[in-house]
Amino acid sequence: MPKIQQLSPHVADLIAAGEVVERPASAAKELVENAIDAGAKNVTVEVQNGGMTFLRVTDDGCGMSAEDAEIAFLRHATSKLRQASDLEAIHTLGFRGEALAAISAVSRIDLMTKTADSAFGTGLHLEAGTVTERDSVGCPDGTTIIVRDLFYNTPARMKFMKRDSVEASALISSVSRLAIAHPEVSVRILRDGEEVLHSPGDGKLFSAVYAVLGRQSAQEMVEVGSHWENYTLTGYVSKPNATRGNRANQLFFVNGRHVRSKTMTAALEEAYRNQLMVGRFPSCVLHLTLPEHLVDVNVHPAKVEVKFLNERDLFDCIRYGVEGALEKASGRVEMKLPKQEPLPATPNMPVSQPSAAVASPAKSTFFRTMNAEDYKAFAEVIREAPRPQMTPELKAALDRQKQPATREKKAEQPEAQQEIELKTEPYRIVGEVLNTYIIVEEGKNVLLIDKHAAHERILFEKLRKAAEPIVPQLLLTPILCKPEREESAILLENADLLREAGFEVSDYGDGVLAIRQIPAELAPEQAESTLEQLASDLKSGKRTDPTAMRDAVLHTVACKAAIKGGWHTDEKELAALVKEVLSRDDLKYCPHGRPICAVLTASQLERQFKRA
Ligand code: ADP
Ligand code: MG
Description:
Elements: H1 9-20, H2 24-37, E1 42-48, E2 54-59, H3 66-71, H4 99-105, E3 108-114, E4 121-127, E5 130-137, E6 142-148, H5 155-158, H6 164-181, E7 186-191, E8 194-198, H7 205-219, E9 221-228, E10 231-238, E11 250-254, E12 257-259, H8 262-271, E13 284-289, E14 295-296, E15 307-308, H9 311-328, E16 333-334, H10 354-359, H11 363-368, H12 372-384, H13 392-402, H14 415-418, E17 428-433, E18 437-442, E19 445-450, H15 451-465, E20 472-481, H16 485-493, H17 495-500, E21 504-509, E22 512-519, H18 524-540, H19 546-561, H20 571-583, E23 597-601, H21 602-608
Parallel strand pairs: 1-7, 11-13, 16-23
Antiparallel strand pairs: 1-2, 2-6, 3-4, 3-6, 4-5, 7-8, 9-10, 10-13, 11-12, 14-15, 17-18, 18-19, 19-23, 20-22, 21-22
The protein binds adenosine-5'-diphosphate and magnesium ion (MG).
């Protein structure tokens, strides 16, 4: 056994550097954190070659004195902690006093820094952690630090670096997270001279989110704001229809620090339960503020993992906070119309062009300037246009209104029929198109309601809210089916669960299953395919807890029992659907996360037709 020796500080720094500075992104993160801790209002990050050859961070923070500037590069040198008890309440991003020591150990550094009360600044040059030059320099207040040739003296680490473009994007995301964590700081990133981020630093979270995630994502988000015990939750979450195939845009911050936490992710996703398609994930920017003694930030070298004293409270705070925000948000999806080019200026536009004519503000001119030919054609169109007709239902309803004596009878009628009342609804059902979408005019909006999605959600909510088990119907003759072996095994194994969902399934021998009972909502012809769907849901094995299982069963039942797009649906039924959708606010998405209602606004239409 060789003799034990204590490692030299340089080797110790290299080892520590391995943890703290994994790649250029981590160096940039530490430097920007330092700038924010120094009270900077503006931070600029410049990178070349993904940060491998050149990384410069400039801030207008408090700067350092000549003496402090040198100490800053020593291991465990920090101005942010004094004694052990300070660790219990950390207000700054940094506190370990390791970053500058670690970064400088594996690179060449130039530092320029100046405090407001000194006339001159300090310039330092370091090679592999050792100061090789020191100077008095003229420079603005604040700190500029340039890191060159990262990992030049640790070839083993260098080998792990990815392509410049990959390193650059990791760096951009990590600095962007800081921009979101600190909306009060304006953060700029220049990659190879090109500006890729510039957050305004106006203190508004939405501005930072907008700058980082872009206009579209920002606009698809709903605001969250809630309190729970000692916790405050603020931020934005995506609407259930604006999800992604991965979790990359789930950003969590705890007391201003970006963290990763399984509990937080789980709580977020729980809030979307029954609103998401399989394999889709919500995005979020959530800031959690809680008393510092309830969270330990000192459990991870790069400080991205933290430990919470009470994970259950944390979970509930996020889950209910997000759920509440989603409930309040409108589920209506704004339709995207192709952008219209502005009209070319054509002074001699023939008057017979209806678009030009209609666009003119004074409608009367339209008729006056029409020539006889055009007018005839126009009149033809008007004559051919379908006229509003009184449907038999409407007529019957009118009659009923006229004879109040017969009105009591109405109460016994099925729900759908009651809808044809003449009380004026704040909307008008225009009709149905493609046997799928109901068109409704409501104020200045045109709504398109997907009848299947709407009905599916209504059924699902009804089934879910029913305190009692789902009402089953006994089949006179059992349905026999022969699913795949694995599937029939799964169905039999889960017979109890299925029974709760209204199915009675038993082994008929020879791989054949007998279905004796199905949910009342389901037509017998749908029984087999519903069970097939359930078997595959159960097989995917993700739904282990009983409520989630029940929900999965209910999804399938609701989906199968709902009226389908493409089917003919009775007018009364459509009216009943519209009424439900427009009067309840729990009907936003079908249980798979597809929107129920899309909106076309008057101004969108006006723009489309170049009226606006
Ligand atoms: P920590 O941030 O954990 O304290 P660092 O190694 O990152 O450790 O920094 C060491 C010290 O150097 C900090 O505590 C701070 O006093 C000083 N420092 C680093 N960067 C800056 C900066 N941009 N502006 C002012 N002071 C800085
Ligand atoms: Mg630091």
